[in-house]
Design goal:
Length: 415
């Protein structure tokens, strides 16, 4: 009887400690989901979903403790700096913390912070990070990179969008799938995306010019001002400056409302419109995900693809598959211009004659590469916008279907 009592004691105490820790962490996630982030609740996760997610995180940590996987990027962050980054509060992690990154047998002193308006980026244990080096150092030719959590089983939507944009001759950041670890513990796959900054211009052989970010939602929302980016020029944030004036963005917005496009490179915007159509994205909208570069040599604005999440199942299910996609005031304005219509028609013909087959080959290549990466790395439980948890098999099935989905959409648009 005494041995039985001792055995029950040995079992009960760890179970109670685990339960207490699980309840505490569940409550932290649940409370974090209710934080008002610049005027809006961050997430709609209920207590049950919070509990399921944190329990899955415990299982993942147990699995990690028994495996020794290589990571492409190893982040070393002091405990005092890691505490705000691990917070479930978006405000805590929004400031850079010191750290060291190791990759390819090289070490770099960096600054690290969490990133993203959507709660999936920072609410749970797996988070998105922005890493930047000092002024005299760079990683793969760039000072600033984003390591973005994959937040749906549509694994390829952003990576493929960037690769497709480049194929079409549209400005877009470099991206690749990389595994990361933090202080020796694997944290799984991230989509590594270069930041749009001065290095982006240099790597695209472009002269230094103004770069504007158009995001008037979430943490970037200006409350009390109309949400439309092409109605109120003051909501555009100037991220790279060649001059101190904002006259070009003010004039462009005012002109567009009057169907004047002297400050727009119409050929580039025609290509951009075709891109938006063929990936069927509503994610480049009146309120977010616009990036514009003003070329001082031509005195014209050029669009940059950012966070398009093209060919995502959720968007394809919610919206009719059709063209043109008119999800912003600027695209509505442009489609009333005869010269823009002529340029767009010519580029559609060019795409289907010269690029469509290559675009499908890109989808096959992307699927093969990421499937290999998933099979050889630690795998987190990915979240979708309906707060569904996806297993590795579900994600792999969605990836394998991606090329045929792209082919079907390409065949239907403009036909």
């Amino acid at each position: 009887m005494k041995k039985l009592f001792n055995l029950s004691f040995v079992i009960t105490i760890p179970f109670l400690l685990f339960t207490a820790h699980w309840v505490h962490r569940t409550y932290e996630v649940f409370e974090g989901s209710k934080i008002v982030y610049n005027g809006a609740p961050t997430h709609d996760a209920n207590l049950y979903i919070s509990g399921v997610i944190t329990f899955k995180e415990f299982l993942r940590e147990l699995e990690n403790s028994m495996t020794n996987t290589h990571s492409d990027y190893n982040l070393h962050i002091p405990d005092i700096a890691l505490r705000p980054l691990n917070s479930h509060n978006p405000y805590d992690g929004n400031f850079y913390q010191p750290g060291i990154v190791e990759t390819n047998n090289q070490a770099y002193q960096v600054q690290v912070k969490t990133r993203g308006d959507c709660a999936y980026h920072w609410l749970f244990k797996d988070k998105s990070y922005r890493v930047r080096t000092g002024k005299n150092e760079s990683i793969e030719g760039r000072r600033s990179w984003n390591f973005n959590i994959i937040k749906s089983k549509d694994f390829l939507v952003n990576h493929y969008s960037y690769k497709l944009a480049k194929l079409m001759g549209i400005l877009a950041p470099e991206s690749s799938f990389k595994t990361i670890s933090i202080n020796g513990k694997p944290h799984g796959l991230r989509l590594m995306v270069e930041q749009i900054d001065e290095d982006f211009l240099k790597n695209n052989n472009l002269p230094l010019g103004d770069i504007y970010f158009g995001d008037n939602i979430g943490g970037a929302r200006y409350w009390g001002i109309r949400k439309g980016l092409f109605r109120d020029p003051q909501v555009w944030e100037k991220k790279v400056s060649r001059t101190n004036t904002r006259a070009n963005i003010r004039q462009m917005v005012a002109d567009a409302q009057n169907l004047k496009f002297d400050l727009l490179d119409l050929k580039e915007f025609a290509k951009y419109s075709v891109f938006i159509d063929i990936v069927q994205t509503p994610h480049i909208s009146n309120g977010n995900n616009w990036r514009l570069y003003f070329n001082p040599n031509t005195n014209k604005f050029i669009p940059i693809v950012w966070d398009a999440t093209g060919l995502r199942d959720k968007y394809l299910a919610e919206n009719p598959i059709e063209a043109p996609v008119l999800n912003s005031d600027l695209m509505i304005y442009l489609h009333q211009d005869p010269e823009f219509a002529r340029l767009k028609k010519a580029y559609i013909q060019h795409f289907y004659k010269n690029l469509a087959t290559k675009a499908i080959d890109l989808a096959h290549l992307g699927a093969r590469n990421v499937l290999a990466k998933i099979d050889n790395s630690y795998f987190p439980y990915f979240l979708d916008t309906d707060v569904g948890l996806h297993t590795k098999d579900e994600v792999k099935a969605a990836i394998m279907k991606f090329p045929s989905k792209a082919q079907q959409i390409f065949n239907r648009i403009y036909r």
